[in-house]
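User: For my dataset I need records formatted as: sequence, then structure tokens, nothing else. Please produce one.
Assistant:
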Amino acid sequence: MLQSIRDGSRSWGAKIIIGLMVAAMALFGVESLFSVFGSDPNEVASVNGEPIMRQQVELEVQRALRSGQVPPEQERALRNDMLDQLITQQLLTQYADDGGFYVSDAQLDQIIVGLPEFHDQNGRFSADIFRNRLAGAGYSPVSFRQDLRVDIMRQQLQQGLAFSDFSLPSEQARLAELQRQARSFRYVLLDSDNADIDINVTDEQVQAYYDANQERFERPEQVRVEYVLIDRQAMAAESDVDEDTLRSAWREQNRDADRRVSHIMVTFGDERTREQARDIADTAREALDEGESFADTALRYSDDTASAEEGGDLGVISRGIFGGEFDNTAFALEEGQTSGVVEIDGAFHILQVTEIDAPSFEDQREVLRQNVALNDVNNAFNTKVQQLIDESFAADDLQSVADDLDLTLNQTDWLARGEGEGVLSEPGVLDEAFSDEVLEERYNSEVIELDDDRRLVLRVAEQRDATLISLDEVREEVEQAVALQQRQEALLEQARAMAAELASGNAVDADWQEATNVSRQSDTALPQALVQEVFRMPHPEEGESRYRAIALPQGAALVALDEVSDGEADEQMQGFIAQMAEQLRAQFVIQGLIDDLHRDADIER
């Protein structure tokens, strides 16, 4: 179907079809086309038919980055991890739904109100803190309740599984005994510096290693990709915003912010006429113009004697407290500004804003500039995206599209599936390069919506099939691997010969190192592989030693196990070990369920 559309894309019929498509998107959104042309391009995976959207992954990535627990340079790996987590969560949620797990609105309300993260200094739930904390974490109240409901259901499921399994007291006691056990031994580390090893790598050995380890030398299917990117943030960065526009945006943003206000009030009625009151107010305003302080002027002229003694200060007010003309005047002033004479409710007022409860203009300058610039380029961005949709659909290349839209044509080196960097590392993007239409038919991809500000189209410039790299290309690597293998085998054989001599009662020339009362939890500089093997050795007879040769990543070791002791009983440690045993057992049970769900699920990504 797409072939015929592309072939006829310049015909009047195609133009009418495309015109109807554009109208549908304008009226009903791009989702209106999915039922006609297939699945949502923003879908990065599906779990038993339920989609996981690119926006979900990006939202979780941004939350993780915002938390500060993940450095920005790990963003690429984080996206893959987050997608894996979302798939597992989806499986557990589906399993919980099928099992009839349920959380009521009343339960949710009780849990939310009880969370200390949303409590004020008095330990009470605060709606303001609740909203602020959610906004800082990228949640709305509705989305938070939805995610919390699902989390609780999954917790109910996992707790039920965990509590269904247990360990016997005798098992816990035996585990504690093994954990506190200590071993004393002697050891010799062997490497090529203290052993006479003859390395002779033959062609036959190289060929044999290459044949036996061909999976190490397979090159996967790869593509070189071209792509163009429209980035609203980049467009905004190049937009000029003048100072007046920034200040206007700042005033608009903070026009309803709470502020501290002072006033001078001159009343009229029984004691003076309106004209007399106006004359007094004008005189007070002239005194301010001549440099008299607001506090002194208020003390001289204001009929509000209580506030006059405080320099006219009315305290911090919110919009709506005084209402009407008072609000219109007070909330139109910037910090430090003084109004003219204003008639409000039977009196003349002069208002001064002494403080605004909002970040200063300078503190907000960069954010304001970015927001104003984004708004300024919004129409240009949408126009350019529409051009990209129209031109990339029918074009036989991307260079012409890039030229027409004044975009940069980016080109990559060879990439396998999942190897993209930058924007190509975002979920599902590089998958488009390996789709049938893009890879086999060599069409431009659909316009990919990375987020609200970025749109991307890619094309495969070149493709090469998966292949086995020839021995000639990797010969040096293979020879090094064979030499290392020979060195390791020679060292281990030497250690075995020494162990056999010692077991027969003969002496060997060895520079023994002592390790006394080493436990499984000891903080030791010894190789971990060495310690693990020592604790696998059988107990020696009283007054005797057990000998073993141990293979290490960089050599070999000869060990003489001299003594095994029970260690000191520690109730606290025993309780901790019992608790850890239960947790590990529970984790194994839950992981077993997750593995089964993954094995039986229909997962596409």
